[in-house]
Amino acid sequence: MSSLQPYGWDEDWAAAFAPYAAQGLLPGRVVRVDRGSCDLVVTEEGVIRADTTYVTPHDPLKVICTGDWAAVDAPGGDPRYVRAYLPRRTSFVRSTSSKRSEGQILAANVDHAVIAVSLAAELDLGRIERFLALGWESGAQPVVVLTKADLVPDATALSYLVEDVETTAPGVQVLPVSAADGDGVDVLAAVISGGTSVLLGQSGAGKSTLANALAGAEIMDVQAIRDVDGKGRHTTTTRNLLVLPGGGVLIDTPGLRGVGLYDAGTGVGQVFAEIEELAEGCRFQDCAHEAEPGCAVLAALEDGTLPERRLDSYRKLIRENQRIVAKTDARLRADIRREWKRRGAEGKAAMEAKRGRLR
């Protein structure tokens, strides 16, 4: 049995890696990405540092990321290089805050997107929907974890909070968890034991504390949060991959201030599955659910079947995603035009040089 199996190595990964094995390269999984040129990769010989110069293209979606399966130089070289990485099964991507609206990959090859939401502050259902859209779009199965459940000692009040989130997250398991006293940790550990999970959430959501509880050790640094608003400073500054004692792999991420959508139309549709289902009954196929006659969505809004907050949130995320897609398409078209101009200029220069040689 391969020593990489606890990290998620399986027969399909081995088959995909076969061409690199024939070149004498070793398989490894990226367990940490630093801002410098070196990354930590776990191989059958243990954790090594490997230079990622060859896998850092201009496209931010194609840079190597925590969770990637890499092809690494055999022992002997200094430094050792990551030469390539295997095609990703899934990837969690958000939009950056840059004006270019580029995507940023946070984790690769994940099976569960664990969204940590603190009960120390008022629930922001809109933000949860945003995380869920990205989670569904990644190809992973979202799971919402309501952390710091010990701060809501009344069982009835806690059940209402869980119910509110379940209504917001159709098809998603919602688990109240208290890392402080251990309640619910075993349930979550069982849910994510069969694959790789990425842990997401805002600063102060209790992600590092939850990661420590799942790992059974004080691996991640934890800082106290402010009593005023339940927020805290970033305690995790890099994305780290941990093997859990109960099985499975966990990728912890820094707290996310911004959760921008990035071409997440399918994910938005899954978050608002009831609205998408209602829309099938609209009179017009291209109904915008604004004022059109025969709109099944507006009818559900009028009779109280569909909460107004859900429709408002749906419209907001749809509009945001459309803007991002439009900006991305415009940027790609501009990049293509620049590339063709560059090639045209190079071709013209080559022709002039050829003519000069013939004279």
Question: Could you characterize what this model shows?
Answer:
The chain is α/β, with parallel strands linked by helices and 359 residues long. It is 35% helix and 20% strand. It contains nine helices and 13 strands. Strands 1, 2, 3, 4, 5, 8, 9, 10, 11, 12 and 13 form an eleven-stranded mixed sheet that branches. Strand 8, helix 2 and strand 9 form a beta-alpha-beta unit. Helix 2 packs across helix 6 and helix 6 packs across helix 7. The longest helix is centred in the last third of the chain and has 51 residues. The radius of gyration is 24 Å and the shape is globular. The N and C termini lie far apart (69 Å). About 5% of the residues have low confidence.
Give a quick summary of the entry.
The chain is α/β, with parallel strands linked by helices and 359 residues long.
